[in-house]
């Protein structure tokens, strides 16, 4: 029976793709003054995947998408809408349409969404509204980032953190509603804590007429401030999403957080009283892949047989903006 408020939603397929090049902490110690022990103790990261100059975001996203579409047992031509959550598109005007073309998703409208490491959760909420109102029935949501393009490789405070990758899910209209609740937030007063800033240089076109011409500088981050923000705000937003879903922490099968730092994952789980065995974590192998981290971790857990149909997942993203949000959903049809 369809809900009176609209159509139900099911998350029916997942996929992921990472570059072949891997850089572990020992290799990183040849670039900056650091060590595997130092990085591991502070972040939980042991290795990360990096895109070379021949690897595009479009290619990673398209491969992840094809896997998700296949798992959902539909074809690219069934897709109505493609949302690409990214902060590092191949084209500053957007990459979603190129993915739509590469997939052969001829019916789909496509657009980019930027909310940094919160992008996938914001994308989940956005996709759910299109399905809930009956506008679209099959939505492909992709989280993908190649932040190695924008890392200062001499800054050990940031270069140890980030990796590249893509993850995707398919959401479909369903008679049984599995998208249970959400909460999303923003606070621009803390924007300076995490930036990939544009720096303009003045160029005089004619006398009295100047424009700003420049490019983007590498990522800057206040790590301590981001940590304090995450451990305070993420449990709170998950609790609000659970309230909207009318479930308790004891009913959560899996806690799926943005894979930024193992200490953050542990602190959030502890505050919510969710046992460690219910926390999905793969950041040791991939690092912080920004908008890709949640769908990448989800797909890996699904394909390993950990996450099963009917399992209840609390997903939460947090990052630049500052933005943060949580969504509660059941996996599968």
From TrEMBL:
Chief location category: cytoplasm
Matches recorded under Pfam families: ACP_syn_III, ACP_syn_III_C
EC number of this enzyme: 2.3.1.180
Active site residues of this protein: 117, 258, 288
Domain Beta-ketoacyl-[acyl-carrier-protein] synthase III C-terminal: 244-331
Localization (cell): Cytoplasm
UniProt-listed SUPFAM superfamilies: Thiolase-like
UniProt similarity note: Belongs to the thiolase-like superfamily. FabH family.
NCBIfam families, alphabetized: fabH, PRK09352.1
UniProt-listed PANTHER family: 3-OXOACYL-[ACYL-CARRIER-PROTEIN] SYNTHASE (PTHR43091), BETA-KETOACYL-[ACYL-CARRIER-PROTEIN] SYNTHASE III, CHLOROPLASTIC (PTHR43091:SF1)
HAMAP family recorded: FabH
Name of the protein described by the UniProt record: Beta-ketoacyl-[acyl-carrier-protein] synthase III
């Amino acid at each position: 029976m369809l809900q009176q408020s609209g159509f139900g939603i099911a998350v029916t397929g997942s996929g992921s793709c990472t570059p072949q090049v891997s850089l572990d902490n020992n290799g990183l110690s040849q670039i900056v003054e650091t060590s595997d022990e130092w990085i591991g103790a502070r972040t939980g990261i042991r290795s990360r995947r990096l895109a070379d100059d021949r690897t595009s975001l479009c290619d990673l996203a398209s491969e992840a998408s094809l896997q998700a579409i296949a798992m959902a047992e539909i074809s690219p031509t069934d897709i109505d809408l493609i949302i690409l959550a990214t902060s590092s598109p191949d084209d500053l005007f957007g990459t979603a349409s190129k993915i739509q073309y590469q997939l052969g998703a001829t019916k789909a409208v496509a657009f980019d969404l930027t909310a940094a490491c919160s992008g996938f959760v914001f994308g989940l909420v956005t996709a759910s509204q299109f399905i809930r109102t009956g506008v679209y029935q099959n939505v492909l949501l992709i989280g993908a980032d190649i932040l190695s393009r924008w890392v200062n490789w001499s800054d050990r405070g940031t270069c140890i953190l980030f990796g590249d990758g893509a993850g995707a899910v398919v959401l479909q209209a369903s008679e049984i509603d599995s998208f249970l609740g959400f909460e999303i937030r923003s606070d621009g007063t803390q924007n300076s804590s995490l930036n990939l800033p544009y720096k303009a240089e003045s160029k005089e076109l004619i006398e009295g007429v100047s424009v700003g011409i420049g490019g983007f500088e590498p990522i800057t981050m206040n790590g301590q401030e981001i940590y304090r923000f995450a451990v305070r705000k993420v449990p709170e937003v998950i609790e609000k999403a659970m309230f909207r879903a009318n479930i308790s922490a004891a009913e959560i099968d899996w806690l799926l957080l943005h894979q930024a730092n193992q200490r953050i994952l542990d602190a959030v789980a502890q505050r919510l009283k969710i046992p460690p065995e219910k926390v999905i974590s793969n950041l040791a192998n991939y690092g912080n892949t920004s908008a890709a981290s949640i769908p990448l971790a989800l797909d890996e857990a699904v394909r390993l047989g950990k996450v099963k149909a009917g399992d209840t997942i609390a997903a939460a993203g947090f990052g630049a903006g500052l933005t943060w949000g949580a969504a509660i959903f059941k996996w599968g049809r």
